[in-house]
Amino acid sequence: MTTDPSSPLPVDLPVDRSPVESSPADRSPSPASSSRPAARAQSELIRWFDGRGEIAVAFSGGVDSSVVLAAALRSTAPAVTAVTAVSPSVATWQLELAQSIATHLGATHRLIETHEVELPEYRVNDASRCFHCKSTLYQTLHQLCQSPTLRDATIVSGTNADDLGDYRPGIAAGDQAGVLKPLAELKIDKAAVREIAHRFGLPNASLPASPCLASRIAYGVPVTVERLQRVEKAEDLLRELGFETVRVRYHDGDLARIEVPADQIARLTDAPIRTELSKHFSEIGFRYITLDLQGFSSGSMNRQLVSLGQPIGSGK
């Protein structure tokens, strides 16, 4: 499947390939600062693509891959294509976001179906699940890059410097597939990524990270399309109720463990919200509905890897 936006770049996004200067409004609420000026990191990122031929960006619509795509489009690369996976493990809202960002940037956007859920080694959901998922994605991407429209394109991901500190088997899959990591290579961390995103004028610059739906399912609980759909419906409901940063962790016995930021926990216990959640989660297929009193924690499922004898890195 292919989408090629025909509309021109938005008026607030420069068409030339030079770094975009941020306005005072962009700078004042800047989410974080890095060890070097964001303008310098932005320029280095744009220059990174020079001389590497055509570029294919593994594009999720998240802020990391969006920054990589925006930089590539401003480089001297002869052609840049964003490629997004379509799979039951990718939430519908994330796919729509990727399409929206690609259109915003005026990028050529390709959608490719991946079939990791059909793989027994993926469904078993052990500590290497992400490796099998990313391997499938990159194999499909490599096949696409043998087509006449993308022949021999350099494949890049949005892996940033911070990602290297956590347990990320998907990064190993990318390394084996020859996928390059410009953000990590240039030592650009998440804080710097967000600053650069603001400078590029990206609408998702402050969007919280949201890994694939399979990351919500506890290790050892088989990944099925039905379970992925339950998680998606449950998180959609919570977002409709105003919880922007949310995870619904799926544990054995059809138990849902809800994570929201600690300062929003009290609101979840309000009688009207609690009643609505209990009703709808039961209808979705959860037998037990629990609230994690420790609050939201990115990568919290990786704590379970200790019992599996796997490294967890920084466990962010």
Automatic annotation (TrEMBL):
All residue ranges annotated as the Asparagine synthetase domain in the record: 53-124
Region annotation (Disordered) ranges? 1-39
A molecular-function term among this protein's GO annotations: sulfurtransferase activity
Q: Entry's Gene3D superfamilies?
A: HUPs (3.40.50.620)
- Record-linked InterPro entries: Asn_synthase (IPR001962), LarE (IPR005232), Ni-pincer_cofactor_biosynth (IPR052188), Rossmann-like_a/b/a_fold (IPR014729)
Q: Which is an annotated Pfam family here?
A: Asn_synthase
Q: Name one GO biological process term.
A: asparagine biosynthetic process
Compositional bias, Low complexity, is annotated for 22-39
Q: Which residues form the active site?
A: C212
Q: Which domain of life is it from?
A: Bacteria
Name of this chain's protein: tRNA-specific 2-thiouridylase MnmA
Organism of derivation = Stieleria neptunia
